[in-house]
Amino acid sequence: MKIHQKYMLRCIEIAQNGLGIAAPNPMVGAVIVYNDEIIGEGFTSAYGKSHAEVNAIQSVRDKTLLKKATLYVTLEPCCHYGKTPPCADLIIDHQIPHVVVGVLDPNEKVAGKGIEKLKKFGCDVTCGILEKECREHHKRFLTFYEKKRPYIILKWAETLDGFIAPEKGKRGSNPEPYWITNARSRQMVHQWRTEELGILVGTNTVLEDNPKLDARHWKGKNPFRIILDKDLKIPEDYHVLDESIPTMLLTEVEEVKKDTKGEIHYQYLDFSMDLAKQICEILPGYNLTSILIEGGSKTLQTFIDAGLWDEARVFTGNTSLTKGIKAPEFSGKLINSQNIESDHLKIYRND
C-alpha cells in the first residue's frame, strides 16, 4: 500500500467517531505525519465545536514539528467563518508544508477555495487520495450539497412471506408496535436513529403503532421526528406529539402553514403533488443532512417510486403472517448481508 493511502485510511477510520455527533457538519478525519510517524490525529467534534484539523493540530505535543509535517484530511479544509474559524487559516498559521486531501468540499462556501488558499500561501496540496472511499465515508454530506436533499435510508422489517404488518384483526385493541424482528435487531435500529438527523413515518404507522421514534435503547441523540399527517388526525396524547423531541408534522391543513407550537413544527404540503420531491425540498431548510424512513409501506413505496432513496435496510424476521400489509417492492444493489441472531438483514444501495 502506498504511503498516502495508508494514512488516508487512518483518517477515514478515526472519522467514524464523529458519526451521529458531528452532523450537520461532515464527519472529517485528520492525521498529521512526520518522518513516517503519526504525531497527531483528530476527528470532527460535536456540531459547533472544533473541526478535525483543529483537533489533530492540538494533539501534537511538539508544535515545532508541524513545519516539517504532512496533514492528511478526508475533506477539503474549510476557508470560511461559521461556528468556528477557517481550518485553512490554522494550517497556514502553523506553516504545515504539505496537505493531502481525500475529496473536495462541494459546499459553495468552500468548493476548491480552501485548497486555493493553502496553495496561495505556499502549501503543497495533493488531492484525490482514496477519493472513492472518502466519498463513501462522506455520503451524507456530499448528497446534501450535490443533490440538495438529505441522504435517505429506507428501513423496514418483513416476514418470511413478505408482509410488513398484520391485518387489522390480528392487532390488539391498543395502538402499539407489532414486532417482526428480535430485540437485537430492534436495538440496532435505535443505534441507526442516533446516526441520522431525522426519522420519517406516515400517518397510519403512528395511528397503528403509537411509536416514540426515539433512540432509548442506544446512547446518543434522538432524531428529529417527521410525520406525514395530511388532515392532522393524530391524537394529541400520542407519543410523537409529547414535545419531548422536536417534531414536524407535514400536513395539508392550510391554517397552520409554517406554524410552530413548542417543539411541534407544522409544514404545509400539497398531497396531490409529488410528496417525496416536496419533502426533499423542505428538509434541507431544517439542516437535515440525512433521514431514516421507517414506514409504513405506502410511505416507503412513495420514495422508492420517486427514485429518492440511497440505502434500503431490510430485516427479515423468522415468522410468517399469510395475510397483512405487503412489504414495499423495489430493486437495488445488495451491498451487505448478515444474520442478527434469528433475523436476517440485507442492505441495498440505489444503483
Automatic annotation (TrEMBL):
UniProt xrefs under SUPFAM superfamilies: Cytidine deaminase-like, Dihydrofolate reductase-like
Cofactor(s) needed for function: Zn(2+)
Binding site for substrate: 193, 213, 216, 294
Catalytic activity annotation: 5-amino-6-(5-phospho-D-ribitylamino)uracil + NADP(+) = 5-amino-6-(5-phospho-D-ribosylamino)uracil + NADPH + H(+); 2,5-diamino-6-hydroxy-4-(5-phosphoribosylamino)-pyrimidine + H2O + H(+) = 5-amino-6-(5-phospho-D-ribosylamino)uracil + NH4(+)
Top-rank taxon: Bacteria
Residues the entry annotates as binding NADP(+): 157, 179, 205, 209
GO BP annotations, alphabetical order: riboflavin biosynthetic process
Domain CMP/dCMP-type deaminase: 2-126
Active-site residues, record numbering mapped to chain: 53
Keyword Nucleotide-binding listed: no
PROSITE patterns for the chain: CYT_DCMP_DEAMINASES_1 (PS00903), CYT_DCMP_DEAMINASES_2 (PS51747)
Pathway involvement of the protein, from the record: Cofactor biosynthesis; riboflavin biosynthesis; 5-amino-6-(D-ribitylamino)uracil from GTP: step 3/4; Cofactor biosynthesis; riboflavin biosynthesis; 5-amino-6-(D-ribitylamino)uracil from GTP: step 2/4
Cofactor binding: number and manner: Binds 1 zinc ion.
Record key words, sorted: Hydrolase, Metal-binding, Multifunctional enzyme, NADP, Oxidoreductase, Riboflavin biosynthesis, Zinc
UniProt cross-references to Pfam families, sorted A to Z: dCMP_cyt_deam_1, RibD_C
Chain residues that bind Zn(2+): 51, 78, 87
UniProt-listed Enzyme Commission number(s): 3.5.4.26, 1.1.1.193
One of the record's GO molecular function terms: zinc ion binding
InterPro entries documented for this protein: APOBEC/CMP_deaminase_Zn-bd, CMP_dCMP_dom, Cytidine_deaminase-like, DHFR-like_dom_sf, Eubact_RibD, RibDG_C, Riboflavin_Biosynth_HTPR
NCBIfam families found in the cross-reference section: eubact_ribD
Family affiliation: In the C-terminal section; belongs to the HTP reductase family.
Record's function text: Converts 2,5-diamino-6-(ribosylamino)-4(3h)-pyrimidinone 5'-phosphate into 5-amino-6-(ribosylamino)-2,4(1h,3h)-pyrimidinedione 5'-phosphate.
Name of protein: Riboflavin biosynthesis protein RibD
Source organism (scientific name): Maribacter algarum (ex Zhang et al. 2020)
